[in-house]
Design a protein that fits this description.
The chain has 90 residues and is mainly alpha-helical. The chain has one domain. The chain has 4 helices and no strands. Helix content is 48%, strand content 0%.
Amino acid sequence: MQGEPCAHSTTESLGGKPGRMSADVPILAALGGLPGIGKSALARAVGRELEWPVLDKDDFKEIVYGRTAVPDELSYDLLFRLAQRHLRQE
């Protein structure tokens, strides 16, 4: 269920301290919410602290906006494809 912690968290598996992503434990953390509440800023701060890659839909949208009639849809497609590749390779 959304918002509930999982039974085995990353913090527990790494001795109480989260860290770099490893090949044996791929992690995807997704943020959602209303526009302008700081999701991107929070993601960048957490990414810097934990040395995790941050994928932001808005980065894709800036590139595709004006080039397609469905910039949001295309941005999500690109974001999900890149996330899949990261999870398979990490």
